[in-house]
Amino acid sequence: MQPSLPKGILISLSSGQAFRFKNTDGVYKGVLKDRVYTLSESNLDIIESDENLRYFFDIDTDYEAIKEYLSSLSPTLKNAIDNAPHLRILRQGEEEMILTFVLTSCNNIPRITKMINALSQNYGKQIEDEYYTFPISESIARATEDDLRKLGLGFRAPFILNIAKSIDSGKFDVDKIHKMDDREAIHYLEMLPGIGEKVASCILLFGYHRLNVFPKDVHIKRVMETYFKGKDETMFYPYAGVAQQFLFLDDLK
Question: Is the domain defined by 94-207 classed in CATH 1.10.340.30?
Fold first, then answer.
């Protein structure tokens, strides 16, 4: 039986949004919540039948309509969409994304992945073999800065520790963001150490499914200056975040 989902959807796992799935010759294995999943183009039907995966891959959002709209705005964007037509915005945990994207500052994907794995192995719960859940803030809050530095977190160690303590104590309310507009939410996240506008935007896009939030790193700033000179992300409203991911991945390639 052929899977009903299009081949190519798994590219979302290696597009800079998520760091918990390892790609080995097109087979992705990783942790989502408290389960280990093995995904490949031969078993895509599991995504539709599994509640966690269905939510994670945002199956119920009409990406065909979004892509049609965005493609009409710019030939450059249309080309980026055509090059990765099945890319989606993954729906990930709010708290996990706050801690994850603090680790992305001045970093690269292999090192980010290594740091997340180290945190998970030391403060998460083992599921099987080398696979662990992403740690909750309560667990990390019991660590010391030196403990986290030993895991290779470097200058990010105090950021992670203080954020975990803020969330665990209730000083920072992860759920409160759902009631804020995008600008308010960015300002609220920026109250946490190690979080600037770019990281806050990533957290909102990937953790809170704010599809109009447009993270700006060096890649995207260069793309905008080259192909959209004199314009800004408002031209992609209300799906600027989706446009950003297509442009980012195309530039990354």
Answer: yes
